[in-house]
Amino acid sequence: MVEFQGTVEPEQDTGAFESPFSGREAVCYEAWMKVKSRHRTDVDGVEVGGVKGMDKPSNTEVSWGLAESDEARRPFAVQDGGSRVMVDPTGAEIDITDHMGESVLTVGTGDSLSEDAHERLQTITEDKAGFESDAETWDREDETVKYQEARLEPGDTVHVIGAEVESVPDEWGHSIDATVTEAVSDDQFRISEGTESGIVRNQLIQFITGSIVATGLLLLSYPPLTRAGMI
Predict the structure, then answer these.
(1) Is residue 186 domain-resident?
(2) What's the superkingdom here (predicted)?
(3) pTM over 0.85
């Protein structure tokens, strides 16, 4: 097993690909498509029936439901001080975002994705990086949709832990010192955006936030005890 961090660089021959919906370069990529819907509620906010696609009447709430998701990965290099390590992300657990990334594009009912977006979808599919695009799947003119992305981009800092180190093929030249791939055993193989200290800090914040929410739910579950001052 290995552990290191450094700066992401595209692989010399294949380079980075363009993210379909934002057009930004990436070596690892996740995408989510959400569909807009409206739900009629009573005065207390309880849903009483779906009203998807209609003009907003009184007492309605808007929600976004997940319709599609996919990802793409391409081998990349990590510049770690004086060393340059090639990383094959196949089989890795990748942590490059908060929950479902960032919203990059919204397309209203009756509209469609741009020709550039369609070309990027086709390119990333033909690239065989793992992403499967289909016009009917990712472009829905009869609905309002929102696209969200998470990207590991050239220049990002990345932390890699686990996996196996292999010898470098001769055809890769001398600019690569080693290549890291998925381990044959069940050892951890994780690729995270950011430095090790930053990752630990984020995990701690998530743990504390989760604990606070859990405690609040527990208190709400026992209102008699709360009123009696027992909790």
Answers:
(1) yes
(2) Archaea
(3) no
